[in-house]
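Milestone 3.1: sequence recovery, worked example.
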């Protein structure tokens, strides 16, 4: 147990207390000692009454020293936590011991009703006047604000690390992470997924003739359209200049036979409304069994897209997961084209 008279005896022997002390009791001398500390400090007796507060405590609690003396320490706790606090104080007094600061989430309440996050150190002290508890209080407001800013900055950096800086959709790193999760789900639970690879046709002449700024506007507009056209659980990623990949999680062959042609038709209609002669080549693969690697899965969809390119562009080829089947066209007839993804 921390005994105050040990400190007081030391002060008396060295003559280190101020001439301004108005009394010579343990409380007077110990109080003068607490005025030299760099933290707000209270002395609280066994029934929970504040019998001493240093100037820093008054400043922290935004009140006069005289208003703190005689105040119940429970009054410095928000109303909704006072009963719990009384129980904790009673438990503490059954076996008083040093309790260091531990960065717990604790809110203190000032006499004016304002609250602030705080950390508390408790230490039993034996004065001639009787046992008391030293309560050292630190305001964590600034620290909490800094922690919040750091967490926000970290989230922002994490988001930027996974986002294409121009278009605002996922980048290739994000796609790889998402594919790793889908492949793991497929291995563990047998849930197929579909990967769609699309590449704009005639995009280079647009850049060459009208400038990269206009090309960037097209890519941004397309990225926004793709994100609005798929489910929230799907992922749109930009993997090259004018190349995008859409990952449709838990999408087996039957669903893909509807969604992939609908996707191609909706993108085609979107491009038709632009002032430039742009079309799109699409390759899609349903993975009913795990691919050899993440890159292999992307390459399979890319290979189908390239077949469309070599075959004259502006089309869609899909393989729906049957190892014995060939890739098939997923173009819709003109009358079947839709403007939104089902």
């Amino acid at each position: 147990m921390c005994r105050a008279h040990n400190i007081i005896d030391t002060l008396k022997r060295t003559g280190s207390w101020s001439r301004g002390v108005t009394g010579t009791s343990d409380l007077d001398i110990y109080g003068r000692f607490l005025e030299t500390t760099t933290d707000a400090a209270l002395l609280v007796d066994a029934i929970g009454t504040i019998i001493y507060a240093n100037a820093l405590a008054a400043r922290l609690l935004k009140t006069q020293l005289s208003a703190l003396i005689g105040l119940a320490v429970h009054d410095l706790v928000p109303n909704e936590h006072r009963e719990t606090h009384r129980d904790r104080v009673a438990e503490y007094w059954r076996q008083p011991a040093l309790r260091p600061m531990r960065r717990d989430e604790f809110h203190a309440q000032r006499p004016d009703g304002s609250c602030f996050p705080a950390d508390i150190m408790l230490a039993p002290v034996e004065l001639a006047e009787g046992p008391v508890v030293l309560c050292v209080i630190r305001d964590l407001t600034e620290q909490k604000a800094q922690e919040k800013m750091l967490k926000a900055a970290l989230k922002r950096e994490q988001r930027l690390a996974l986002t294409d800086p121009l278009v605002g959709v996922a980048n290739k790193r994000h796609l790889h992470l998402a594919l790793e999760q889908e492949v793991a789900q497929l291995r563990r639970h047998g849930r197929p997924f579909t990967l769609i690879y699309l590449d704009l046709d005639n995009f280079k002449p647009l850049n060459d003739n009208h400038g990269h700024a206009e090309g960037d506007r097209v890519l941004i507009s397309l990225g926004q359209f793709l994100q609005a056209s798929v489910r929230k659980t799907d992922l749109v990623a930009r993997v090259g200049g004018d190349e995008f990949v859409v990952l449709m999680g838990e999408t087996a062959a039957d669903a893909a036979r509807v969604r992939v042609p609908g996707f191609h038709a909706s993108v085609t209609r979107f491009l038709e409304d632009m002032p430039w002669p742009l079309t799109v080549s699409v390759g899609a693969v349903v993975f009913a069994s795990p691919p050899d690697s993440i890159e292999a899965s992307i390459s399979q969809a890319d290979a189908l897209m390239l077949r469309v390119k070599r075959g004259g562009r502006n089309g869609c080829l899909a393989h729906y997961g049957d190892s014995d089947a060939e890739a098939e066209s997923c173009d819709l007839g003109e009358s079947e084209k839709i403007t939104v993804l089902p």
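Residues 2-140 form a domain with the Beta-Lactamase fold (CATH 3.30.450.20). The first helix runs from residue 4 to 14.
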